[in-house]
Amino acid sequence: MFAYLVRRVLLMLMLLFLLSVSVFLLFAILPGDPARLTCGKACTPAIIESNRHRLGLDEPPLTQYVKFVSGIFVGRTFSADSPQPIKCDAPCLGYSFNRQEQVMSLIARSAPVTFFLAIGAFVIWIVVGLALGIFAALNRGRWGDRLIMGISLIGYSMPSFFLGLLLVFFVIIKWQFLPFPAYVAPWENPFQFFQTMLLPWILLATLYAAFYIRLTRNQVLEVLSDDYVRTARAKGLPERTVVVKHALRAGLTPIVTAAGLDLAGLLGGAIISENIFSLPGLGALAISSIIDSDLPLITGITILTAAIIIFANLVVDLLYAVVDPRVRVI
Amino acid sequence: MTATSEEPLSGMPIVGSADRPFLSVNDLHVTFPTEDGLVQAVDGVSLSVERGKTLAIVGESGSGKSVTAQAIMGLVNRKSATVTGEIWLDGQELINLPQREVQELMGMEIAMIFQDPMSSLHPFYRIGDQIVEAIRAHRSIGKAAARRETLEMLQHVGIPAAERRIDAYPHQLSGGMRQRVMIAMALINSPQLLIADEPTTALDVTVQAQILELIARLQGEFGTTVILITHDLGIVADVADDVAVMYGGRIVELASTTTLYDLPEMPYTLGLLSSVPRMDQKLPERLDPIRGNPPSPIRLPKGCVFQPRCDYWQRVPGEACLTVRPDLLESDPDHWVRCHLKVEERKQIARDVKQILAGGGE
Ligand SMILES: Nc1ncnc2c1ncn2[C@@H]1O[C@H](COP(=O)(O)OP(=O)(O)OP(=O)(O)O)[C@@H](O)[C@H]1O
Ligand code: SF4
Ligand SMILES: [Mg+2]
Predict the structure, then answer these.
(1) Which residue of A228, A233, A249 is in closest CB contact with B121?
(2) Do residue B171 and residue A325 have CB atoms under 8 angstroms apart?
(3) Average pLDDT over residues B126-146
């Protein structure tokens, strides 16, 4: 187990390294001059050059990369030779000259929004997805199963922006059950927080639950016909024990791990939901950084979200190894 | 078709084998509704086994052996299949028994070993715990005592270093070891009836004999009644008292092992035996197994189910083999055959075939 852990952590570090290198390479070989993108219409070559210098873009890519990585661990200073050097504390993911702010603090402001959005949706979709999926599997072919599968098919095939707009139109505009969303932190105004998050949670949870209901149903049906479940029955165990301890334990493990990865994907920002409901999360930040061609911010967000996913992969795999003894020896 | 029993369903058990053998199956039908139509997996099977004896059920793939076994065990899912007929075990009818009571019998009075030991144990749990679970499902004894009992049983079925292996996961054991674990689990509550569904098919040839020996030894020790399912007639001769040959969901021949090997009367059995080298040691493997394919369980021929593959149907007058289903009739005491040929003719055919086989070396 320990060797497995070490191996997996090393693999993760290697992946992170490759990932950050490729993000850097990508921006280095991309057509267009990033320095040119930093200033608007009233641009002179002199401004471009000074921006290039401030961004460190006049240095060779390798130097840029080393500075970026060391910035994460020990911090760095931009425009060190200018009269107003900009200090960026560790962990420094860069400095957005467009927004005059450290990338890390921009992210730190948006991340909680996305975090609450993702976690809330995750809890709803896991509970609903697993419960309905298991119910459908155990009642295969009956009307309950058909109803659940029919509804999940609708949810599954509905484009997210469309469902989001429907929710906004009916719940907020037409019926006025909820006010227009205005995000506040839960510790500032819990009531308003829930009012704001309710529809985004429902939107995301619906999309994922629809998928997870089908996944769970198929998985449960499959394990129910597995040989070891038949063995459990042949021992004369009560049906409950057969289903819960033998079938579900084995059948749901891969689903929960898949959900862990989906959660990680959401933590990197739920672009459509955040935009529909004006939530200042990572997805919204990413979109606006692209619109503004804010290169340091784009780089920071890309690397951070990818790191979250790689890390989640590690956590999920380790959890899997804890649950399934077969994994450890491989 | 539906055999309704005159016996009280949950009344007094009829004790003693005077009027009824230990296990008797009466006109068992198992039907699966599928998208392609009704699958008649078991179509009127009747058989009986005396206490402590071994009945072998042989037949090609798809002949309904496993479904018969699972119906006896109570493992056929009643939501997806129709089961009719009677199954009497030690004076108790099982088909109409409430699920709760079937559960009490499973793993306690009747136990089962399956074909694939690789997939029959739960991959997430230690083998010791899986056996302990089987004990505690039926007997209220403490965990420590159950574990002691488990360890003894693991040693008893010949698992080396059982003190260590008891905490192993299934994937850490070889196929033969896993089948031993399955046997230990099946016998842990000293069941009266053990159903072994192709217990050696998935194993190496060398291990096969060991497992069969183990089953035979334990049967002797515990006095267990055994139903051994196999498609390998070669292993039957050593272990079974009686043999039931199944084809297309029915029994086509039922006899004591000696009788069946000596003078099989149904052409299908004859074909099966001819392809087993054991029948005559000099016999080369040149004999083909029976030509053609088993029938589809959905569209069975109108007459004898074996007719499309039978070499002798033209000897029956009036093309009866094409139009009339033969019944399972007693041709000698305790020798049942399902074939339109006259008894004497069948015996002659068997003698002729044996003759050819015996002289086939030249
Ligand atoms: N759950 C099921 N649904 C539909 N058909 C089934 C089901 N189980 C078994 N059958 C069919 O019933 C028939 C008999 O199957 P069974 O498993 O008893 O054969 P078998 O004699 O054990 O063969 P094998 O040697 O391959 O194990 C087969 O045609 C099979 O396809
Ligand atoms: S009944 Fe006819 S077809 Fe069937 S086995 Fe006998 S001879 Fe062959
Ligand atoms: Mg079978």
Answers:
(1) A228
(2) yes
(3) 96
Judge: B133–A237 Cβ closer than 8 Å, yes or no: yes
**What pLDDT band is residue B360 in, cutting at 50, 70 and 90?**
low
Domain boundaries of chain B, sorted by first residue: 120-190, 262-358
Give the C-alpha separation, B361 to A184, whole Å: 94
Domains of chain A from N-terminus onward: 2-103 (no CATH), 108-329 (1.10.3720.10)
Nearest CA to ligand 1 atom 24: B61
Name every chain B residue with its beta carbon within 8 A of the beta carbon of A249.
124
CB contact under 8 A, B122 and A329: no
Q: Considering only residues A47 and A206, tell me which one the structure prediction assigns the higher pLDDT.
A: A206
pTM: 0.84
Start-to-end CA span in chain A (Å): 10
Q: What is the ipTM of this complex?
A: 0.86
Determine the distance from the C-alpha atom of residue A200 to the mean position of all C-alpha atoms in its chain, rounded to a whole number.
15
SS3 state at B83: strand
Reported as a pLDDT band with limits 50, 70 and 90, residue A212 is very high
Contacts of B73 in chain A (CB under 8 A): 234
Per-residue CA distances from B347 to B263, B332, B336, B351 (Å): 7, 11, 13, 6
- Taking a 5 Å cut-off on Cβ, the residues next to ion ligand 3 are B 66
Give per-residue burial for B260-296: e unless 16+ CB within 10 Å, then b. Answer: bbebbbbbbbbbbbbbbeebbeebeeebeebeeebbe
Separate counts of helices (H) and strands (E) for chain B: 13, 12
